[in-house]
Amino acid sequence: MTNAYDAAYHRSIHDPEGFWGEAALGIDWVRRWDKVLDDSKKPFYRWFAGGVVNTCYNAVDRHVERGRAAQAAIIYDSPVTGQTRTITYAELKDQTARFAGVLAGLGVGKGDRVILYMPMIPEAVVAMLACARIGAVHSVVFGGFAPNELATRINDAAPKVIVSASCGIEVNRVIAYKPLLDEAIRLAAHKPDHCVLLQRPRSVAELTQPRDVDWAVAMETAVPHDCVPVAATDPLYILYTSGTTGQPKGVVRDNGGHMVALRWTMEYVYGVKPGEVYWAASDVGWVVGHSYIVYGPLLNGNTTVIFEGKPVGTPDAGAFWRVIAQHKVAVLFTAPTAFRAIKREDPEGLKIKDHDLSSLRALFLAGERSDPDTVNWAVTKLGVPVVDHWWQTETGWAIAANCLGLHEFPIKPGSPTKPAPGWGLEVLDERREPCPAGKVGSLVARLPLPPGTLTTLWQADQRCFDAYFSEFPGCYKTADAGYIDEDGYVYVMARTDDIINVAGHRLSTGAMEEVLASHPDVAECAVIGAADSLKGQVPLGFICLKAGVIRPDSEILAEVVALVRQKIGPVAAFKSCTVVKRLPKTRSGKILRGTMQKIADNESYRMPATIDDPGILEEISGSLQDIGYGKGRPA
Ligand code: COA
Ligand code: AMP
């Protein structure tokens, strides 16, 4: 053993029960577990079976009881409304207990689902914690999704109550949520009993009686509700994420293992001490928001920043530096795309000089591959360790990271450093044999996965098994391809499925293809992720029109672009599409998306041996060049 990371990693793999059993002492238990790891239903492992806990108690109440009542739990910084507000742990407890009372009063109890469709405001956190307090299962839906996507989630989770706000505020527009919510409920087969709506002054909504309840009115008379003990293995939340089809996957997280893992990561991955200010500049609708805006920092007794703004445009590329200086942020976590946006507007980093960033100890990046240019820029401009770390909605926390709380390794830009403790990471080839160092293959993790990872997909064990555990028996398939070098550094290169990453947002090209195919004039279609200097990737569509369609291409293209925005939402950022006569396919009829992507990205490609008609690739290149892509040539 040469350092604390090596020791921790070795123990986590060879004695996972000892390792995580010790980490579990960082959590308050109503009743200790019978077994640290229950492996009776492999590959569905359960952590801390027999344990009884409450996540809200651990995130809020215990800090109030132990000297943090007056400490800020949340700093709400909202450049889009011009507000900054601090909520202490005592206030957070009071609000959460009262909102738990509101939910209970509406008939929500242990195991019932509650959907939250909220902007980045403290009430979103209050609502999540209130669910945890009474053992209800929350499912937060990102505000940039359209009613159709919300309806899909309503049908799957079947919530008793939906909590929302009257509007969200983007840089250049106010988005009234109520019409979107009403439309989603109209589209859904399942109807919630009630909606609780927080009225925001920017756009006050008309409530639908008797279904809708006004948040403020309900809170006035609410009876505070105590924490309800739940099994460690009971679900805390469902978070839907893109799968390969239009039907999203409902990732389920438990209470006990989730708390143990997240609190541990705050100390050992991020190196943050209780009391410090931690800022994850993401959104509560994503997994980063769940783990590191809400649960991780609060479980660890930190102050978390809720930022309702963007890295640029609210008002400028100095926004992040202002927030760090004003609130004395110790650790910042964001997506590389945010830094690319800042770098594009302020390449010299001049705005950094206007602020005192001495509180900042480290920057963590995740959500997409950190390109070396961005990492190098951040290292030079900020002068603090810049940690690329790799994780997924399914894993809930980092699979690979430079664990600053254990040992700081020298960084290699382009690599998220080493597997985090608990992760038996391997690279396997098509024959499921280990790849030698440096060779790209499928990144898989040996089971059991550490605590805090997905326990299943909501009411879909078989889908969970098929998606993650069947292809590489005894392993979890990450669906990322990459390699591990001679020094044990991990490199994550690309997804092996049709998921793309747009501005750190995970999207399914399959889901977009379903929307394009639903247009009456479209005979066939394909969507790929094309490289983009700001967003990492952007979706790029190809449509073949049905025989006999004589309307102008431009009209149909405008319609399909609008259709994706309407069905999936603005977050899909689907803006580029082209009409082609034919799609390139193999002789067996499989669309050659990989080759199309190389052409779009101006890369050379190997002519696929099984291509049906090589001439089509020239046609594709021609159509793409008309919209600014597509100079890739055969090697
Ligand atoms: N509610 C409604 N609409 C939303 C939304 C929300 N919560 N979030 C985004 N949108 C809309 C945007 O307004 C935009 O609409 P437009 O097409 O009318 O312009 C569209 O969805 C795409 O949004 P986004 O991908 O965020 O692009 P952008 O151009 O607005 O901003 C960045 C680009 C890089 C500044 C922005 O993506 C960013 O800050 N990213 C940070 C990364 C991040 O938070 N990642 C989460 C995982 S860590
Ligand atoms: P999400 O579920 O939205 O967190 O997206 C997960 C996917 O984002 C992963 O499977 C990767 O493809 C990609 N990803 C996240 N973090 C990184 C990273 N640090 N490096 C490379 N890819 C990443």
Please give a quick description of this structure:
This protein has 635 residues and is an alpha/beta fold. It folds into two domains: 4-309 and 389-482, Rossmann fold, CATH 3.40.50; 503-626, GMP Synthetase, Chain A, domain 3, CATH 3.30.300.
Question: In terms of structural class, how would the helical and strand content be classed?
Answer: alpha/beta
Q: Classify the fold: give the CATH topology of the largest domain.
A: Rossmann fold
- Spatial order of the strands in the main sheet? 5-4-17-16-18-19-20
Bound molecules: coenzyme A, adenosine monophosphate
Sketch the major β-sheet: 7 strands, mixed
Under the CATH scheme, which class of the largest domain?
Answer: Alpha Beta
CATH homology group of the largest domain:
ANL, N-terminal domain
Query: What is the percent of helical residues?
Result: 25-40%
- What gap, in angstroms, lies between the N and C termini? 47 Å
Question: How many helical stretches?
Answer: 18
Which band does the percent of strand residues land in?
15-25%
How many structural domains does the protein architecture include? 2
Named CATH architecture of the largest domain: 3-Layer(aba) Sandwich
Give Rg in angstroms: 24 Å
Helix-strand blueprint:
Elements: H1 4-14, H2 16-23, E1 35-38, E2 46-49, E3 52-53, H3 55-68, E4 72-78, E5 83-88, H4 89-105, E6 113-117, H5 122-134, E7 137-140, H6 147-157, E8 161-165, E9 167-169, E10 174-176, H7 177-187, E11 194-198, E12 212-214, H8 215-220, E13 230-231, E14 235-241, E15 249-254, H9 256-268, E16 277-280, H10 287-299, E17 303-307, H11 319-327, E18 329-334, H12 336-345, E19 362-365, H13 372-382, E20 386-388, E21 400-401, E22 418-419, E23 424-428, E24 441-446, E25 456-457, H14 461-469, E26 475-484, E27 490-495, E28 499-502, E29 505-508, H15 509-517, E30 522-532, E31 536-545, H16 553-567, E32 576-579, H17 593-600, H18 615-626
Parallel strand pairs: 4-17, 6-7, 6-8, 8-11, 11-12, 16-17, 16-18, 18-19, 19-20, 31-32
Antiparallel strand pairs: 1-2, 3-13, 4-5, 9-10, 14-15, 15-25, 21-22, 23-24, 24-26, 26-27, 28-29, 30-31
Helix pairs in contact: 1-2, 3-4, 3-5, 3-10, 4-5, 6-7, 9-10, 12-13, 17-18
The structure holds coenzyme A and adenosine monophosphate.
